[in-house]
Design a protein that fits this description.
The chain is mainly beta. 1% of the residues lie in helices and 40% in strands. Strands 12, 13, 16, 19, 21 and 22 form a six-stranded antiparallel beta sheet that branches. A hairpin with a 2-residue loop joins strand 14 and strand 15. It is rod-shaped.
Length: 308
């Protein structure tokens, strides 16, 4: 709509801040939220004084943000309220607390209308999110929510190291003289492995890397000896050889050497999947070496990710 002269101010329905009467004073400044407000005219206001609605331009006039009553007010007078109507013939600016979700069109709020501090201005988490905390993701342009439990992880959650603490000279499963590394510089990640009579159990499911290192001394009567890595998927009822670490020499004199092998074990069930180690092919005088103070023959277990 076009207007001749000044276009009416598109208003906002507002209640002015309370005004304390000053004895012998007729003029007062109108504010909303401690900010001066300017009504379009006296006719766009409802003013109550001492419980009586006042007539615009007769009982009071307006100039800018100043309302002036027709006579000075006295100490016992009370300005009950002043409501500014704005342009009541035009939709204009919505009144405070009147815009509901139903009044906003679908897809009407775009990124251009969001303040840059919509994230940085909110309270920050000071610890890892709970599993049920939710994040927003865009799935081919459609916003969806996802629990933190479904996206957390990505790091190594289990890592452990065990060693042989004494020499082995017999061909048999290694069932004793095993300890978790206890050097001052050592630390495991997660719960770590559980060992009982040489049988190693896993704390959690996952795809594990097992690194087997053998340190030994072979005599000139024995070219090679080895450690076999065995794995069970039925709780220990049966085992398969999954890796072999071979050590030895063709020298005619005693020789100390070291060897390492690595393999992956898919732990889909912590009750069923077990691992053990076997010393094999040791001739008389040959030794698989262990030590309680530092690593010689040792076994490392590292969880690389989820079970497959």
């Amino acid at each position: 709509m076009a207007y001749i002269g000044t276009k009416p101010t598109i208003g906002n329905f507002q209640i002015c801040d309370a005004i304390s009467v000053v004895n012998g004073q007729a003029a007062y400044t109108m504010q909303v939220g401690s900010v001066n407000v300017i009504p379009q005219s006296a006719n766009h206001m409802i003013v109550s004084l001492n419980g009586t609605i006042q007539k615009p331009n007769s009982s009071f006039t307006v100039s800018g943000s100043t309302i002036t009553f027709s006579s000075n007010l006295v100490t016992n007078d009370v300005i009950d309220f002043i409501q500014i109507l704005g342009d009541v013939l035009d939709l204009g600016v919505p009144s405070d607390d009147t815009v509901t979700a139903a009044k906003i069109g679908a897809n009407a709020v775009t990124a251009a209308k969001l303040n840059n501090d919509i994230i940085s201005g909110t309270t920050a988490l000071t610890s890892e999110p709970a599993d049920t905390d939710e994040f927003l993701v865009s799935d081919a342009g459609t916003l969806k929510r996802i629990d933190y439990s479904l996206i957390k992880g990505g790091g190594i959650t289990e890592a452990d190291n065990w060693r042989l603490t004494a020499n082995t000279t017999s061909n048999a499963d290694i069932t004793s003289n095993l300890e978790r590394v206890d050097d001052n510089s050592f630390a495991k990640i997660g719960t770590g492995m559980t060992e009982s009579s040489g049988i190693f159990s896993f704390a959690t499911t996952g795809l594990y890397q097992i690194i087997t290192t053998i340190k030994g001394n072979s005599t000139n009567n024995d070219d090679t000896f080895r450690i076999y890595v065995h794995a069970s998927t039925n709780g220990g009822s049966s085992y398969d050889i999954i890796a072999e670490v071979v050590l030895g020499t063709t020298s005619t004199t005693d020789v100390g050497t070291m060897a390492t092998n690595t393999n992956l074990v898919n732990v889909t069930n912590t009750t069923n999947v077990k691992v053990k180690f076997e010393a094999s092919s040791l001739a008389s005088g040959s030794t698989i070496e262990g030590h309680s103070d530092y690593n010689k023959t040792n076994f490392a277990f590292i969880r690389l990710g989820d079970s497959q």
